[in-house]
Design brief:
The chain is α/β, with parallel strands linked by helices. The protein has five helices and five strands. A five-stranded mixed sheet has the order 2-1-3-4-5, with helices on one face.
Length: 164
């Protein structure tokens, strides 16, 4: 039986070295870090016309700024030269379909352990984007907090709408 991983490895063998871009440095040439959701409909490279080597792309459930995202951004800025942060969350996000307590209750019932981490569930994606932008702007670990912008990506139309 062929697994999904086998399929991806076969694709890499066929196409892995034809992706354009500069692979010579871990420092992104555009000096930008993009934080977004893990949702497969958010195709970061295609949305922004990125090529390899231009941007750091950080992903998690919801595209929310968590302590681990701050850790990655601190390394990105302090060691790898990024200066701008672009936060992109999206419409029809699975994280808006759960609540903090219900999901933690579900995990505790299944495992006997209650998670210590926050689920970061939200009802309005715009509010979540605003919170994430503020977390970046307020983090003392990040030296570059003046160019931080947040957007909602419409998964149906492809439009990016800035959140004020």
């Amino acid at each position: 039986m062929t697994t999904s991983i086998d399929l991806l490895l076969a694709r890499n063998a066929e196409f892995g070295n034809v992706v354009p871009g500069d692979r010579s440095s871990p420092e992104p040439s555009l000096r930008v870090a993009i934080l977004t959701c893990m949702d497969a409909r958010v195709r970061v490279f295609e949305i922004f016309g990125l090529i390899q080597g231009e941007s750091h792309v950080l992903r998690n459930a919801g595209g929310v700024v968590t302590d681990d995202m701050i850790r990655s951004l601190a390394l990105s800025q302090r060691k790898l030269g990024t200066r701008e942060v672009l936060i992109v969350q999206h419409t029809n996000c699975g994280l808006s379909l759960v609540t903090e307590d219900d999901f933690k209750d579900e995990l505790e019932a299944a495992t006997g352990l209650r998670p210590t981490w926050s689920v970061e569930a939200f009802k309005k994606v715009e509010d979540s984007v605003r919170r994430s932008v503020e977390r970046v702007k307020r983090s003392d670990f990040l030296p570059h907090r003046d160019v931080v912008r947040g957007f909602v990506y419409d998964v149906r139309s492809g439009a990016l709408n800035e959140v004020a």
